[in-house]
Amino acid sequence: MKPTRQQLAAAADRTIPDVLAPGLAVLFSGINPGLYSAATGRHFARPGNRFWPALHRSGFTPRLLRPDEQEELLTYGLGITNVADRATARAEELSTAELVAGAGHLTAKVRRFHPRWLAVVGVTAYRTAFRRPKATFGAQPETIGTTRIWVLPNPSGLNAHYTPDTLAAEFALLRQAAQESAA
Fold this sequence. Notes:
- This protein has 183 residues and is of the alpha/beta class.
- The chain is 34% helix and 15% strand.
- The chain has a 5-stranded mixed sheet with strand order 2-1-3-5-4.
- The radius of gyration is 15 Å and the shape is globular.
- GO terms for molecular function: pyrimidine-specific mismatch base pair DNA N-glycosylase activity; uracil DNA N-glycosylase activity.
- InterPro entries: MUG/TDG (IPR015637), Uracil-DNA_glycosylase-like (IPR005122), Uracil-DNA_glycosylase-like_sf (IPR036895).
């Protein structure tokens, strides 16, 4: 069901539940929920968001999942959370202080649930939240306990720098690293 304009407006500042369990292979972290996601209660729910196709095309999932099937990710050792919990129309509406505080909350989740990899989607948000201004895509030198960190491009349809193919290729690099670290 597509949210109405009123439902989208009412979704501002809402939060949505994490898809999380102990010991995941990869915990994906969005920047924050968009209004569409907050209105539906599903991560990466806006039509045109390329997260779900990138997961499938990169080999993380055997079929293309829909946002309403997000709980199925747990069966593949995957989960989803956000750096900042508050829903906004655009990530740029988040303050630096909110992103930094969100990184602290995310770090606490990682320490509690111990995923092998934390994958943050959005290099600019990662740089700000984790105070790593020179961070690039891929594996990061820092860890959170034993959890490795990987930065992926933002899968939003607004990110014109990445085509569906190049986005899936970036996700596939993480999948390969996650498989190698499990061996």
